[in-house]
Amino acid sequence: MADFDPAKEAINLSKHGVSLAHWVDLDIKVTFVDDRYDYGEIRYRAYGFIDGVVYCRSSPAEMDRCGQSAFDARTQRR
User: Is 28 in contact with 48 (CB distance < 8 Å)?
Assistant: First the structure.
């Protein structure tokens, strides 16, 4: 299990109901550059499943390479 900033972990759990540590379980189906806003860096969005639930992972390029990420959306698979 990876170590995460406790404050970021608490925010993510509160907002999305999933621990940042579960990124390793994400079965990614599609990844693309997130250019919706000028983030000042290249960011990626990846969509996939964990236990039949769809998740979206958002991460800057340098974090993506080292395997750290955050989930920023969750919906039930229909």
Answer: yes
- Domain limits of the chain? 6-76
Contacts with 46 (C-beta within 8 Å, 6 or more apart), sequence order = 26, 28, 30, 31, 56, 57, 58, 59, 69
Per the CB < 8 A criterion, the answer to whether 44 and 32 are in contact is: yes
Structure tokens at 54: 């769809």
Distance CA 56, CA 48 (A): 7
Q: What are 14-42's pLDDT values in tens digits? A: 988 888 888 888 899 999 899 999 989 88
The two three-digit tokens of residue 15, written as one number: 């907002």
Q: What's this model's pTM, rounded to 2 decimal places?
A: 0.63
